[in-house]
Model the fold of this input.
Amino acid sequence: MESSRDHLEGVPAPAEHRQRPRPRLPVALAVACALVPRIASAACDVALLGSLEFGSRILDVEVAGDLAYVAAGWQGLAIVHVADPADLRLIGSLDLGAYVQDVEVEGDVAWVAASDFAGLGGGLYAVAVGDPALPVLLGSVAASFSQVETDGAFAYAIDPDSGLHVVDVSTPSSPAIVAGLDLPGFESNVEVVGDLAYVTVLGGDPGFGIRIVDVSVPAAPLETAAIPGDDRLPVDVHVESGAAFVPAIGRSRRGLIVFDLEAPGGVTETAFLAQPNARTCAGWGAAPTSPSGSTRASAAVRAACG
Done:
């Protein structure tokens, strides 16, 4: 099959890499409601149905069927029964001895990213969750990862200080890092669609924005294009139906940016859903470290909010 490197000269993704088509507006609204709730509260019609308290910060949630897999910081991985939203029940947990920031579930395996926060270790952990009441560690690879995206036999993990890492996860008992790509700046999140990885970057050259990386050869990731940024700091990215949805903060603006990845003239910003009365970056600029503990992250945040 032809690699995306054979025809990727600009940003737009080839047709075979697009996810299943869905109407643009509902997707945009769903992402807006999920990521920046207050910008469309009337349209989202959000109501609290239930809650479950944790003793640590909740950094990510992955829902599969009746179960929610929770990245619970110092509490590790938590598994919650969510069949009845009004009666959320913790049914299993696993303390990994690291600061858990992200989780992806593939079948009976949860892939857990943990950062080396406070020098206590971190990495990518494979956890067997076939019995959700008794999660079991299968294997791990040492690193400092804040986010992970799985795609078949490979996982794509972000280390804020050293970039995008490709991990062979075909054998959960022995995951192995096979490649890395240190993009300029501080990398915060990654979304993989087909042979392309979309990485949000804070700072560097050409500055804030999204770098597009060809991962058709997992052992040799290659940056192929970039969506340049401005004073808005991209903190995440979701790609669907030929569009990129990017929640962002900035000196004076905060909200959701929507890019058309398939515009004839190249990537085009088509909408900015501003979050009214936002605090924007207040309080970040003076912080000695970012919430993830990354020194590069702190520098990037201070540059954006200074």
About this structure: The mean pLDDT is 78. The chain is about 10% helix and 40% strand. The CA atoms of residues 59 and 101 lie 5 Å apart.
